[in-house]
């Protein structure tokens, strides 16, 4: 009888302890969820600022470096100077003299076999990504990949152009899409898909990228997206 009473007392004491441990674990995980993204964002921002400072500060003459006259370093000075320099370069390139100098420099680069290909490719990428008039990756969509019945998220780039478009002129109208990989969306595959096989999504490119990076764990749940699914459901697969 005494054994039963002692066992009940031990069980009664173990229940509060387990609840307390569970609460501590939940508090810890909650704190990790809150501070983790903030801490990583601050760390990446600080690392980027230091990286830019390490490149820019050494080329600044001591007479023009504020740290020469201050008893403490100025974090972010290199980043500010880099933004200022890029703005000045853009201003100069926008006038006639700047365009003339730029054309002369490009003509010299075009005479270098290996450098020419590298420069032209990088220039085209930067112009496509940074051009405000460009609509590259403006929409997210679904395509059947790698086989029918399986769906993958893609980013619509542009209508198919150039030689590829000429070769496919007898086919259905196609679009260029980028199929990102998980968890690194910067790598992936370029696909030329018939427009009729592309299902555009209401979610933005940023939300689609989060969905890809998180392997489906972060899923935007917007009312308008759900409404689109009701009004325009996925096409039914024909029985084979």
TrEMBL record:
Transmembrane segments: 27-52, 72-97
Cross-referenced InterPro entries: COV1-like
Source species, domain of life: Bacteria
Record key words, sorted: Membrane, Transmembrane, Transmembrane helix
Cited Pfam families: DUF502
Keyword Iron-sulfur: no
Annotated protein name in UniProt: DUF502 domain-containing protein
Top-level taxonomy: Bacteria, Pseudomonadati, Pseudomonadota, Alphaproteobacteria, Hyphomicrobiales
